[in-house]
């Protein structure tokens, strides 16, 4: 029997989001025994420079460490990999230039999912400054004729506070409520769904609290990983 493909996960950005993604990958896998689960290698490097500061504030470029992590996954034999950070996707084209290893884009997977939903013509984005500044989701959604809806400056500040609080393990009930209020303003502006376009957002905003259906790109990516691994194994 041929060996099952090895799935690479480039994580640590942040650690809690990486654990959350792996949990979702396990949940998405149709397995009833240990042996039926995917072979996975997680390279979690929390020292990767802050992606938001790199894009918006002239912070250190995270590309070299992303390249090093992708190379570790390739050297380990990964057939492909995913990155559990939306903002890091702004740097992945440069990573691909240096490491010849396919990656699945959380942004593209999400845009494809939303484009298949007939009731979605606009999507509210809860994301980091980096992801919004890079236009990752705006471009992909616009290509699918979906209008992106963004928070105002005060709302985006509240989003970033919640994201960094999750990373610090210090999220408060007040910050959770503020995130719900931001989502409500996106709905008021016409959003049909709320996209958790940062992997920390689902750890701060539940589907039950969201004023519109909450789209979790990590779940969509996990499902895509399972499908791709199955196709490679067949």
Radius of gyration: 17 Å
The largest pleated sheet is described as: 4 strands, parallel
Helical run tally: 10
How far do the termini sit from each other? 11 Å
- Spans of at least 5 consecutive residues whose pLDDT stays below 50 are none
Element pattern in H and E: EHEHHEHEHEHHEHHEEH
Average per-residue pLDDT, rounded, comes to: 97
Q: What is the CATH level 1 assignment of the largest domain?
A: Alpha Beta
Class from secondary-structure proportions? alpha/beta
Number of structurally distinct domains: 2
CATH third-level topology of the largest domain: Rossmann fold
Q: Strand arrangement, largest sheet?
A: 2-1-3-4
Tell me, what's the shape?
Answer: globular
Question: Portion of residues in helices?
Answer: 40-55%
Proportion of residues in β-strands: 5-15%
**Second rung of CATH, namely the architecture of the largest domain:** 3-Layer(aba) Sandwich
Enzyme class: isomerase
Family: Belongs to the aspartate/glutamate racemases family.
Organism: Nesterenkonia alkaliphila
Pfam family, one: Asp_Glu_race
